[in-house]
Amino acid sequence: xxxxxxxxxxxxxxxxxxxxxVFIHDRVHYxxxxxxxxxxxxxxxTIYQDPDxxxxxxxxxxxxxxxxxxxxxxxxxIKNCCxxxxxxxxxxxxxxxxxxxxxxxxxxxxxxxxxNCSWEFTDWLAQQEKRTNRRPRAYFPDGYQRDFLTxxxxxxxxxxxxxxxxxxxxxxxxxxxxxxxxxxxxxxxRLVDDMSGISMHYAMKNYYLADKRGLVLAxxxxxxxxxxxQNGASRILSIGQVARETNDISSMSLTDFAKNHQRYTQSFDxxxxxxxxxxxxxxxxxxxxxxxxxxQMMAMLGCALKKGGLFFLGIPIGRDAIIFNQNRIYGHARLxxxxxxxxxxxxxxxxxxxxxxxxxxxxxxxxxxxxxxRTLVLRKL
Length: 381
Ligand SMILES: *[C@@H]1O[C@H](CO)[C@@H](O)[C@H](O)[C@H]1NC(C)=O
Ligand SMILES: *[C@@H]1O[C@H](CO)[C@@H](O)[C@H](O)[C@H]1NC(C)=O
Prior knowledge:
16 helices, transmembrane, binds 2-acetamido-2-deoxy-beta-D-glucopyranose, 2 domains, alpha/beta, eight-stranded mixed sheet, transmembrane helix, Rossmann fold, membrane
């Protein structure tokens, strides 16, 4: 009988010890907070962030809900059962990025490699030799699907258009820029019948562009160019369009820009683009198919930006996806790669002149392929 009590006693001690350990572990664990200073619309905010939040947090991707742990690719240390399955889920390491801060809802990453601007432009120019006059493709080329779909983290749906001609059309808006800059900011957006672009105007208004020189990656109509001028920018170079010259805006083709890239290295105070980055590399405008076209274009634009300069980036945000050959949607997987090398300082929507935040639940509630059009303000590190 005493033996039984001794055994019971022993068990109790073990259980108490174990519980205590978990408790203390938890306390140490969650009690530790660090300070991140973030800059949002003119004031420095300090947020207390639990450095281990990723341990508990799930984010939604095309392959289902995954934990931050998986994004950090540390799962294999825990479940070492499934080496081969894990290889399918590599993300940042596979594409040459390192996860630096487990920020939520989008982790912060940086590139493993030092930026070599001259390589980016030389490589891009070499790729252009593959350019043909063929109709844009309606499906991914064989063998490239995995990279286009960010190693399967992106969903895919199909919507086709052949927009090659749009590059050659000279929209009246380009000829009437001098008139359009006098319009009200909302009327300017009537040119494209899509109010979401007003977020770019709000972003530029909050970060004074007075007397600054800017680079714009063009879309069909010169909306972003006009918004920049309206917000005080002194001179704009617009790339991706037929060469032309007005008082404040000059434009040139991407090829000429790439060929003369040395002239433009770190020479602009700001860069802006709305609704274009997400189409690069999908072939819709007759561009060369490239799974990483958007990342490379981002790098090229970044090379022309001064250190500390601002990058106004208008993109659709949601669950990672490609709507081939229309555009990408940036989510938990690809957005951190797109903005690696920049500090994300503010976000603007069409609903408010003040900066807003994108919350995790807001993103994860969206249906597949639904998205929020936002203008992010990034600072080049
Ligand atoms: C950058 O790339 C070019 C080739 O485009 C190469 O010649 C040069 O050595 C590279 N520079 C560095 C620092 O790696
Ligand atoms: C656009 O213009 C360029 C040069 O003017 C020409 O080579 C090209 O074929 C044109 N593209 C289309 C789709 O018309």
